Amino acid sequence: MDTKHCAVVGWVDAIPVPGRRSDTATFDLIVRPADIDTLADDAPDTVVSCTSGDPRITHALLTGIQPGDLLRVTGTMLQPPTPGEPGRLTVDVLEVLDTALIPVLGEMVLDRYADYVVIFDADTDTVPVFTACGRWVGLADNPDAITRLIDIHERVTGGDA
User: Fold this and answer.
1) N or C: where does the chain have the smaller number of CB atoms within 10 Å of the terminal CB?
2) 3-state secondary structure 125-149
3) pLDDT for 50-96, tens place per residue?
């Protein structure tokens, strides 16, 4: 397998996630060719799978980077073992060139009930309920049933939200 030190500019495809080890993070960059104007409209973008073990970069990825951010990453590119798979880049330097617009939730609202989080959606009466840590509690039939669902959950779990 060939490796090459390089810099890549691209957009973050999805929210970066913790890697297999607790001190790493992984994310995908969508990279457009420099000569995009000369290519066909349906020419595919390149996906570069990135990972970082640097604690500062990992922290930045997991707390401040969102889909649509434009990044320049520098590191060691490992060519994929089989053609068609994304290249893998171990990131040593991360630079944010531009941030994505913050999405505005027009029809969906998150709310907090003590140690619980609920999601109100204008398109439905049902209300998903989670603990503040992200564990699924259940689906309330309507906003009036939220407290009943939380009471049942606390009785079953002994108040362990």
Assistant:
1) N
2) CCEEEEECCCCEEEEECCHHHHHHH
3) 999 899 999 999 888 988 899 999 999 987 777 777 778 999 999 99
